[in-house]
Amino acid sequence: MNLLLARLGFAALWGFHWLPLGMQALVGNALGGLAYVFARRRKHVARRNLILCFPEKSQAEINRLVRKNLQATVRSALEHALLIWASKARLQKLISIEGREYFEACQGQPMILLVPHFVGISMGGVRLSTECQLTTIYRHISNPVTNHYLLQSRTRFMSGMPVSSQEGIRPLVRLIKKLIPLHYSPDNDYGRNESIFVPFFGIPAATIPAMARLAKVTGAKVVPAVTRQLPGGKGYVLKFYPAWENFPTEDIEADTRRMNAFIEDRIREMPEQYLWTHRRFKTRLPGEPSLYD
User: Fold this and answer.
1) Residues 71-93 pLDDT 10s
2) If exposure means fewest CB atoms within 10 Å of the residue's CB, which of 31, 89, 119, 274 is most exposed?
3) How many C-beta neighbours within 10 Å does residue 45 have?
């Protein structure tokens, strides 16, 4: 039954991807509004995250952010159909690039792209892969139909396959040293193993410090890249930032704090577009209660 539903869902998305982007945005926003009413679990997680990270905001402001966040999230999920079936020319038209000079300045060197989990994350990654070699980390999904289409969307324009999270760090090191940029998103809560606790909006958050370790082992430059979802049919913008100086240091905790602080600053610029439906604070320090009960 799950496989049949997945096939039907992707068949619907195939038809959906032919619509103009403005119409796709209208549908996504409307369904996101319904998610605000009916997706109680996701709404609860998003609302709790926003309350924790923005304690200065009123209840009305938090509710507006939750609604906008669910609309942006549903819209990006539907528009993922473009990444599976739209032509390279259409994608390059819908997803523009800013700060290209910061990316180009590091080409010919090992490079890690710090790509936080905003709703446009996949848009930016696939857009960049239409122009250059790129690799990323891929987590397999249990539903084979969904797994197939999501993998297809990531690899259509890649010269190589993404690295499975089960393969460990060695394939990543090898690819980075071959001067293939790594599209890397370390800002989820991946559990206690190998994580350290550093502040995220002032709250101790389990964070993987692997970016600093990878940069040290490979000599890679870290170039932040953030994709913004634009209103209506205006598409998306992938924005590069200058490569970090004096990174990594000998203090891996300070390096990881720096990463989280950068992500916080970008979130404050567009709080409605971050992945608030993820339980970012699910792993707690020993003895501390859950923040989501």
Assistant:
1) 999 999 999 999 999 999 999 99
2) 89
3) 20
Cα(38)–Cα(282) distance, integer angstroms: 23
Which domains can be identified in the chain, with CATH numbers? Answer: 2-273 (3.40.1130)
Element containing residue 245 per DSSP (H, E): none
Angle at 204 between CA 191 and CA 116, to 5 degrees: 65
Would you say 128 and 238 are in contact if contact means Cβ atoms under 8 Å apart?
A: yes
Cross-strand pairs, 184: 114
The DSSP element (H or E) to which 247 belongs, if any, is none
Q: Give 111-132 pLDDT, tens digit per residue.
A: 999 999 999 999 999 999 999 9
> What does the alpha-carbon distance between residue 101 and residue 19 come to, in Å, rounded to a whole number?
33
pTM here is 0.94
Is 106 within 8 Å of 114 (Cβ atoms)?
A: no
